[in-house]
Specification:
This protein starts with a strand and ends in a 6-residue tail after the last helix. It is globular, with a radius of gyration of 22 Å. 26% of the residues lie in helices and 29% in strands. It contains eleven helices and 26 strands. The longest helix is centred in the C-terminal third of the chain and has 15 residues. It has three domains: 168 residues, FAD/NAD(P)-binding domain (3-Layer(bba) Sandwich); 126 residues, 3-Layer(bba) Sandwich (FAD/NAD(P)-binding domain), CATH 3.50.50.60; 79 residues, FAD/NAD-linked reductase, C-terminal dimerisation domain (Enolase-like, domain 1), CATH 3.30.390. Helix 1 packs parallel to helix 8. By secondary structure, the protein is an alpha/beta fold. Strand 24 and strand 25 form a beta hairpin. The strands form seven sheets. It has a five-stranded parallel β-sheet. A five-stranded parallel β-sheet has the order 9-16-10-11-12, with helices on one face. The protein has a five-stranded antiparallel β-sheet with strand order 22-23-26-25-24, sandwiched between helices.
Length: 411
């Protein structure tokens, strides 16, 4: 334990891993390496409140005093260039190296690059960091026309926020529906209609052929249908790729993320991976997945800390996620893959409803729009392994609460 734990990445997963090590009683050195100069911050607000408020500042995950008060050696602006697995050392930019007993890779992910003519023009942006969000915010003040490429969660959050601020926003999505098949068709269609009613133009089944510029700055985007969309800013949001280069170069098993076991260990036992960059066999579906959510990053980091201090136990956290798009709070719990039956609760015309996903009679997931009670009950039901009947779902929250209350007490 003389060299302690080194954590690479100071996002939600990395900061939680450091905090959880102390909560679990680990008393060795804990070094947290971040590649940004900022104090670690919350990322979800960047696509919403941050870009619409010129005075908004990043929301710290923990106050500065937390790190010093818990003997966490936080080192901002640290770039890791390599891992020597045999020597248990990291090579840092600038020629330094750093020894470790355990290494936690919380390197996250980065926006997927779109190889387009004109993508290097000023005003062509993507969002992953607070620096990116500042650029989007700054450019939006002088951009009446904005094109968002990609109809996923991040793209739609940005589109809704900018449209609410008076911008003319066009979303261009290559698929025939929004949200990349990540939600039920009913919810995807509901989101499309609400966004269009708020003034966002949405082009489905369409791609951008090239981005056009004027004096080095974006001026428009040409679609596959031959339409020229005026734009002073183009935001690319076509998904992310996991940051696995360090792990791959070090010889760790990698497949759409760093391959980990149920205790967050990579193919090298004293190197763990958590968060967006980790790929694991999910307990609920039996499939290999890589989950991009604050919940997953946080829960995996907690378990990684427990693994390091010697506790047993595999990862069994119920996955959940949320997204705020205009006047819609989307909340998802569970995983829909493999589901073969859906039950609707609530009325989409009221902008408040949920879709319950089942595999045969087993509850697999719930997707909600402005129905937080359904979401919270879903987290309880999936955590307990309880599956309601269609009649219980039709009875609403009260019927589900009663069914849960009638369950035998777990002893």
């Amino acid at each position: 334990m003389k060299n302690g734990v080194v954590i690479v990445g100071a996002g939600h997963a990395g900061v939680q891993a450091a905090a959880s090590l102390r909560e679990e009683g680990y008393d060795g050195p804990v070094i947290l390496l971040g590649d940004e100069s900022e104090l670690p911050y919350h990322k979800p607000p960047l696509s919403k409140t941050f870009i619409k408020d010129p005075a908004a500042q990043p929301q710290p995950l923990r106050g500065e005093v937390f790190y010093s008060g818990h003997s966490i050696d936080f080192r901002p602006g640290s770039l890791v260039e390599g891992i020597d697995v045999a020597a248990q050392r990291l090579a840092l930019a600038g020629g330094q190296d750093l020894a470790y007993d355990h290494l936690v890779l919380a390197t996250g992910s980065r926006p997927r690059v779109l190889p387009l003519q004109g993508s290097d023009l000023a005003g062509v942006l993507s969002l992953r960091s607070v620096a990116d969000a500042r650029l989007i915010r700054d450019h939006s003040t002088a951009s009446e026309d904005v094109v968002v490429i990609g109809g996923g969660f991040i793209g739609l959050e940005i589109a809704a926020t900018l449209a609410a601020g008076g911008r003319r926003v066009t979303v261009v999505e290559a698929l025939d529906r929004l949200l990349g098949r990540a939600v039920a068709p009913l919810i995807a269609e509901h989101v499309r209609k609400r966004l269009e009613a708020s003034g966002v133009r949405i082009l489905l089944g369409t791609t951008i052929e090239r981005i056009e510029g004027d004096n080095g700055h974006v001026a428009g985007a040409m679609t596959s249908a031959g339409e020229r969309l005026p734009a002073k800013m183009v935001v690319i949001g076509i998904g992310v790729v996991p940051n696995v280069e360090l792990a791959q170069a070090a010889g760790l098993a990698v497949a759409n993320g760093v391959r980990i076991d149920g205790r967050m260990r990579s193919s090298v036992e004293n190197i763990l991976a958590v968060g967006d960059n980790a790929n694991f066999r999910h307990w609920q579906t039996g499939a290999d997945v890589r989950l991009e959510s604050v919940q997953n990053a946080t829960d995996q980091a907690k378990l990684a800390a427990r693994t390091i201090v010697g506790h047993d136990g595999d990862y069994t956290a119920v996955p959940w996620f949320w997204s705020d798009i205009g006047d819609m709070k989307l909340q998802m719990v569970g995983l829909t893959m493999g589901s073969d039956r859906q039950v609707l609760s609530g009325d989409p015309s009221e902008n408040r409803f949920s879709v319950y996903h089942f595999i045969a009679d087993r509850l697999a997931a719930i997707e909600s729009v402005n129905r937080p009670a359904d979401h919270m009950l879903g987290r309880k039901m999936l955590g307990l392994g309880f599956s309601p009947t269609a009649e219980m779902v039709a009875g609403g929250a009260e019927a589900l609460k009663a069914a849960l209350a009638a369950l035998p007490v777990q002893g």
